[in-house]
Amino acid sequence: MIIFNVNHILLFLFCSETVFCFTYLSKDGVEIQYTVKFKRECRGEMDIIVTLESIALPECVLECGMRPDCKALSYMKIFKKCNIYSSDGHESDRNKGSCVEILAADINVKRKPCPECTSGKTCNPAKGYCETTECPVEEFEYGIVSGNIRKVGYHVQYTCNDGNTIINKIECLSNGLWNITAGKCSTDVINVAIGKPTSMSSVYYNNDGNNYDGSKGVDGNLNQSWSVRSCFHTNDDLHSWWRVDLGQMYRCFRVVLYNRLDCCKERASDLDLMFGTTENNMYIVRQVDGQIEDIHTFNFPEGKGARYVQVMLRRQNSLHLCEVQVFGFALNL
Q: What domain range includes position 169?
């Protein structure tokens, strides 16, 4: 028997060529015995409950031994990374790389200072009770938490149901709950252009004393008749354009143009739809040759980031539309 003393007492006993038996006595007085198997291929991510980083092997074993939901662990010494699993093995789910694997059935906790801990809680030997240490694996109405790092105080990523929108800095709180608020993600995207500031190449004024400025395109009125006075209108400019400032970056999935129908709808022809991060950094995302539809929809299934959305004619003419809708999610950068 050989004794190693590196902050903790570790008793080492050789059992066979590939299997070793250990006894570990923590500084809190918890004693465990366990059997180690060395593997040339490590388990993958199937059935991972949680990943713990910057942790020693005995502490990883203690973590598994104290958790009722742990059925096995793998430990990669080079990264000091501990994976806790809810099943005792998936031989088909393996990656190249050396690691240590231990089954929960091969861990014997000689002294348990806490009662049986529930999921999301871990025994604190010094205090003698279970405390919340992580947030649960949970499916939300609007999306899922990405990855396996779920410790209290950690920030992770959140993937919305559309599969494209990522909201950064979702935090696991000390009460074991994620700080996600309903509505941050939804498969039903909202019109983020309504009421936002607009600009245009020029503003048309007629004899009725009314101006038809850019705000008419984001006022929420979908009536496509000029007489309602809810359509914007430029002068007969070369490359007439209209633009909305969304105020921050959004991932945009759909833009809808409402053409004027009572007259002159052919003017909305040969146009470009443009996105941009700044007013001076606009780029074409869609083009229409000929006249647009009465209600013309541009779809972006993967989503595109933009703060500014612009419609511009590729020739000289007046540009008038009765509404421009931009559907998407805010990007928290």
A: 134-185
Based on the domain organization, do 163 and 237 belong to the same domain? no
Q: 236-261: per-residue pLDDT in tens?
A: 999 999 999 999 999 898 999 999 99
Q: What is the pLDDT of residues 45-90, one digit of tens each?
A: 888 888 888 899 999 998 898 888 899 999 998 889 999 998 987 7
In a domain, 227, yes or no: yes
Q: Is residue 128 in a domain? A: no
Burial of 242 (0-12, 13-18, 19+ CB in 10 A): buried
Whether residue 108 is found in the same domain as residue 230: no
The long-range contacts involving 276-284, CB below 8 angstroms and separated by at least 24 positions, are 276/306, 276/307, 276/308, 276/310, 277/249, 277/305, 277/306, 277/307, 277/308, 278/307, 278/308, 279/243, 279/245, 279/308, 282/308, 282/310
Which pairing describes strands 316-317 and 295-313: parallel, antiparallel, or unpaired?
Answer: unpaired
Q: Please enumerate in sequence order all residues whose Cβ is within 8 A of that of 132, keeping only pairs 6 or more positions apart, or say none.
A: 120, 121, 152, 174, 175, 176
pLDDT digits (tens, 9 = 90+) for 100-113: 999 999 999 887 77
Q: Would you say residue 38 lies in a domain? A: yes
Asked if 276 and 312 sit in the same domain, the reply is yes
The one-letter code for the residue type at 148 is: N
Q: What does each C-alpha distance from 293 to 218, 246, 265, 268, 328 come to in angstroms? A: 19, 24, 9, 9, 22
